[in-house]
Structures are given as C-alpha cells and as structure tokens.
Amino acid sequence: MKLIIGGAFQGKKEYVKEKFSLSEEQMTDGKNAEYDDIFHCTCLYHFHEWVKKGLEKEWDFENLAEKIQEKNPDLIVISNELGYGVVPIDAFDRKYRESTGRLCTQLAAKSRQVIRVVCGLGMVIKDA
C-alpha cells in the first residue's frame, strides 16, 4: 500500500499519475466509491471524501488498514490533510476530520511508502 497526502489542490492526483504511470481509468474517485471499492481498485483518490461518505452511511472502519493490506496490498490511497487550521464548530465535521486523520495514521503505519505532495512536488516521508 502507498499513501499520498497533502493539502487541497496541491497536485496529488497528477503526481500519482506521473510517478506510478496510472491512467485516469485506473483511478477511483472516493466521492463516488462504495465501501468495498477500496478493496478492489488500483488507486482511490479523495479518500477523505470516501471517509465522509462512510461516516454518513455508518460504515465499519475498524481494522481498515489491516483489511486493505490483506485484500488489496498494492492500493494507492490519495487523501487531503484535514487536521490543520481552525477546529470545526459542527460536531459531524469534527468527527469527520478526526476520523480521516486517524485512518490516515493507520494507513501510513501499514504502507510501504508515504509521500507528501506540496506544490506538485512529492516528498517521501516513509519508504520501507
């Protein structure tokens, strides 16, 4: 598994396409993906939106990193970093922000590679 993180509009998706030679057709949008899609796709971008959808639908995220590692170990996950800035007033938004951060932390622990993209430039922060 590989985790690509960074702020909004920092070029994460384009970086992944170039770095890992992926086409648009090989990439799944987390906004539109269902729970099981993460276990079958090559690359899931907008992971943070997938988490938001999952919270709304009450998906079970327990042991998600382990499940991905078992079922789809070559998955590339792309997620926005949400933990910076002002803490949201809305309770759901706080839960969404926290859940995304905790899940990304778990994915990073199980990932072979973690890359942070800023201004289209990738910085490897883990390469196991």
TrEMBL record:
PANTHER family: BIFUNCTIONAL ADENOSYLCOBALAMIN BIOSYNTHESIS PROTEIN COBU (PTHR34848:SF1), PTHR34848. This is Adenosylcobinamide kinase. GO terms for molecular function: adenosylcobinamide kinase activity; ATP binding; cobinamide phosphate guanylyltransferase activity; GTP binding. Its EC number is 2.7.1.156, 2.7.7.62. It catalyses: adenosylcob(III)inamide + ATP = adenosylcob(III)inamide phosphate + ADP + H(+); adenosylcob(III)inamide phosphate + GTP + H(+) = adenosylcob(III)inamide-GDP + diphosphate; adenosylcob(III)inamide + GTP = adenosylcob(III)inamide phosphate + GDP + H(+). Belongs to the CobU/CobP family. Keywords: ATP-binding, Cobalamin biosynthesis, GTP-binding, Kinase, Nucleotide-binding, Nucleotidyltransferase, Transferase. The keyword Transcription regulation does not apply. InterPro entries: CobU/CobP, P-loop_NTPase. One of its GO terms (biological process) is cobalamin biosynthetic process. It is an enzyme of class 2 (transferase). Pfam families: CobU. Catalyzes ATP-dependent phosphorylation of adenosylcobinamide and addition of GMP to adenosylcobinamide phosphate. It comes from the Bacteria. It comes from Blautia hansenii DSM 20583. Pathway: Cofactor biosynthesis; adenosylcobalamin biosynthesis; adenosylcobalamin from cob(II)yrinate a,c-diamide: step 6/7; Cofactor biosynthesis; adenosylcobalamin biosynthesis; adenosylcobalamin from cob(II)yrinate a,c-diamide: step 5/7. The keyword Transport does not apply.
